[in-house]
Amino acid sequence: MRRSAWLGAIAAANIAVSFLYNWYLVAVLGPGRATDALFAAMIAPQLLLTVGSTALTNVLVPLLSVQPEDQLPGLAWVLFQVVLIYAGLAAALLALTAPLWTPLTVPGFESDATGLVARLASIQLIGAVLTVAGAVQRSAYNAQHRFVWPELSTLVATGVGFGCLALALPVYGVVAAAWATAVRAIVQVVLLLRGMGRYRPPRGAPAELRQAWRRLRPLLLGSIYFKSDFVVDRMLASMAPAGSLSLFALAQQAYSAAQLILGKALAAPVVPLLAQAAWAGHWRRFERISRRRLLLLLGFAAVGYAGVVLVGQPLLTATFGHGNFTPARVHELWWMLVLLGGVWIGGVAGQIISTSFYAQGDTRTPMVIGSVAFTVAIALKLGGFYAFGISGLALAATLYSVGSAGAQWVALERRLRRRGLAQGDE
Question: How much is the pTM?
Answer without folding.
Answer: 0.71
